[in-house]
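User: Show me a protein chain along with its predicted structure.
Assistant: Here is one chain, sequence first, then structure tokens.
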Amino acid sequence: MRIRGVFAILIVMADLGEKCGVFGVYGKGMDAARLTFFGLYALQHRGQESSGISSTDGEKIYTHKKMGLVAQVFAEKDILKLPGSIAVGHNRYSTSKSSSVKHAQPAVIEDVGLSLVHNGNLPSTTLLQEFLASKNISYKMLSDSEMIAEAVAVYLREGVHLEEAVQKVFPIMTGAFSILMMDKHSIVAIRDSYGVRPLSIGTLNGGYIFASETCAFHPIGATHLRDVEPGEMVVVNESGLRSVKVAWGTQKLDIFEFVYFARPDSQLLGKSVYEVRKNFGKELAKEYPVKADVIIPIPETSLPVAIGYSQALGIPMEMGLNKNRYIHRTFIQPEQHIREQGVKIKLTPIVEVIRGKKVVVMDDSIVRGTTSKQLVQMLKDAGAQEVHFLVSSPPVRYPDFYGIDTPDQKDLIAARKSPEDIREYLGATSLHYLSFEGMVRATGLPVEVFSTSCFTGEYPIDIKERAKEFKQLETSKLF
């Protein structure tokens, strides 16, 4: 993430920006906005830039959205101004346009009573732009999500029902999307034909809940029903839940959900994220068993990985790095000295665990490498005798175009340097990435169900004109 505008995100462990999180409620008699607040709270890890909720009482759509974390955006008085038994909500991390409340979601089209929340990214908006231009709608200042909302609104103004309008717009939505849309009487959930972004359905007191991750069901007492399938549209209204097959679906979930983005208490494709991450550690133990004194995970994602590695090799795991859990977003610009502290702002070494030890440090990925370099030096300064850096994914060598804010390829360290050169740059005693095969094997699922674009440069959804932004590297040097 970058420091943008007047808002400062002090430090994030990985150099990858989170995807967004969406949540929706349909249920008679439910306080939908309040439930959505707690759903978004559980999905805070997917986006910390802005948050918003739209609700309806059947007469009007009400919306509240602001910059900041969920707990900063909503107070009790705000929830009370969002009446009704239907609601959709969104946590945003921007992958396009500026960081401002203008692009915070939900995207609302007031004249037709439409509210939309979107997790994902459209690498090409050419078809949407052409369609909007043909209807004399200005699109130059719109995000991809706002373009989708405007396109659907075109058909709503013609008297078409929401679900039919969505079907008409679907062919010109080129990219990855898990989207919730609501009007005054219904919710429509739709997923791109490759299912790159997750989206699940739950049930609660006869109503239905939608969430980017299953971890958001437990806090409100909902039960996971199933996932929205790739290419499926799910419509919920007073007649109940109905499924419409909009396109032929081929499952290609982004494998980075298992590596980094999803919460460990979520399930993806029927698999526990926690167990898969433990398996990453077990696979690393097979590939690269280190004779070390202690294993130290970098909080939070690599904790299960370190447990798996520790159990496989019998090396104790210790929390050698303490995380300041309350450093997220601040409205105070850090002065230069604080900014230069980098990772020290968020992590403090526990010297007693590290001093004089041969240390294995676990992380989920290396992107630019700057944070990893600081971590190695921090451990050395704390007295580590050796620092072995293990990564629970293969080298990230390609940019993402489906909803992760990755750097340009030229800024990805693995696209420019060999593993040995990266080890030398980090100052580590040794460096080992989990093999591509080991990563996939740890999931217990076939490679065909995943998008692995960050590692392989193979993009299941056509990225069209964005293909010129990267070059394919030699396969023989992949991993």
